[in-house]
Design brief:
Blueprint: H1 7-26, H2 31-40, H3 45-66, H4 75-97, H5 101-120, H6 122-135, H7 142-158, H8 163-173, H9 179-203, H10 209-230, H11 235-256
Helix pairs in contact: 1-2, 1-10, 2-3, 3-9, 3-10, 4-7, 4-9, 5-11, 6-8, 7-8, 7-9, 8-9
Organism: Dolichospermum circinale CS-537/01
Membrane topology: Multi-pass membrane protein
Family: Belongs to the 4-toluene sulfonate uptake permease (TSUP) (TC 2.A.102) family.
């Protein structure tokens, strides 16, 4: 890991985080830009993953706070899934700590591919999930939802790209129909997963703090300043842009590996 940031790297990290924050305000997928940028600036993949997680968590806290009034779901389910998210995020981050650098480099293209595919097919997935939840008059047992959220949280603590889309599956089967409530729940649980993962990363010295803070500021500004204008864009074009970037990064890391 570089001991200091050059001016060029600082501008690159800040600008890509700014763009990622804008993308996340509309369609998500900002990690497809910020994570590879950290690697391009000389950060090792595992440190880049931990740093990206930290930067996105700081930026996401603002959106989680903005949605706090929409968390109108039963407190029992909220508390259980919150605890599940904290446990899963902690497990996933510890697994990352015990993953060798060579192993993570070999897994990286497949992790990016899985996240890109999840993002690409997220709309059909959401439609199918809504259809299933409407077709069934009963919600699935809470135990099944807890197991699903635990698996998603472990993935989020380990890597995290595509995390929000996966959590929508859990929320759909909870019977939540209001999009603002879903976004509030997703943001809250995501902040639990990414937030708890920071502690193992921090104690292991994996976080590049200068890069993380710089990207957190850029991502927060991008999400705040560009959200109004970004929402005027056709979401289909934004999604296509993110998908192209995702597959491009995946192809690059497969070739590089």
């Amino acid at each position: 890991m570089p001991n200091h940031l050059t001016l060029v790297h600082s501008l690159l990290l800040f600008s890509t985080a700014f763009i990622a924050g804008s993308l996340n305000a509309v369609a998500g997928g900002g990690s497809f830009i910020t994570f590879p940028t950290l690697i391009f600036t000389g950060i090792s993949p595992i440190t880049a993953n931990a740093t990206n997680n930290t930067a996105l968590w700081i930026a996401a806290m603002a959106s989680a706070g903005a949605y706090r009034h929409n968390l109108n779901i039963p407190k029992r389910e909220l508390l259980i899934l919150c605890i599940t998210s904290l446990i899963g995020g902690g497990i996933g981050s510890v697994i990352l700590l015990y993953t060798s650098a060579d192993m993570f480099k070999q897994l990286l293209p497949y992790l990016l591919l899985s996240a890109t595919l999840i993002f690409t097919f997220s709309e059909p997935l959401k439609i199918w999930l809504q259809f299933q939840s409407q077709k069934s008059s009963e919600s699935p047992p809470l135990l099944i939802l807890v197991i699903a959220q635990l698996a998603i949280s472990i993935y989020g603590g380990f890597f995290g790209a595509g995390l929000g889309i996966l959590m929508l599956a859990t929320l759909s089967f909870l019977g939540i129909k209001n999009i603002h409530t879903m976004n509030a729940f997703k943001s809250f649980l995501g902040s639990c997963i990414n937030g708890i993962a920071i502690f193992p990363f921090m104690f292991a010295g994996l976080i590049a703090w200068h890069q993380a803070i710089l990207m957190a500021v850029g991502g927060s500004l991008g999400g705040y300043l560009c959200a109004h204008y970004a929402r005027k864009l056709d979401p289909r074009f934004v999604r296509i842009f993110v998908i192209v970037v995702g597959f491009s990064m995946t192809t690059y890391f497969f070739i590089r590996g």
